[in-house]
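If your schedule permits, I should be very grateful for your opinion on a structural question. I have a record of one protein: its chain in single-letter code and its fold written as C-alpha cells. Kindly check, if you would, that the fold set down in the C-alpha cells agrees with what the sequence suggests. I remain grateful for any guidance, and I place the record below:

***
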Amino acid sequence: GCLRIIPAHKDFVRAVALCNTFLERLVSAGEDRSIILWNAPTGEKLREFDQASVATAILLAGSCMVTAGEDARLRIWNTELATVQHTVKHPQRVS
C-alpha cells in the first residue's frame, strides 16, 4: 500500500527520485514546472525550485540534482543554494 500522499504540486507529477547519499531525501517534478525537495520520512518540504519548462527526468545525488525536460536542456543544480550551476543543450527534448 501507499506509505504517504503529499499534496503539493498543482498538476501531475512527472518524475520522482530518491537520493543515493542522503536516504531521507526525495525530489519530485511536476507539470506545474516546480521541483520540490522533500524529507521523505516526515513529508516536510525542504526547498522548491522553479524551472523554465517541465522536468521529465531527475537525478539526485547529495547536493547535486540533474533535471532534463521538454525544453531540451539538462540543468545541474546545487540543491543547498537552489541555483543552476550549469545548463547543457540536449539534442532533443526529453519527454
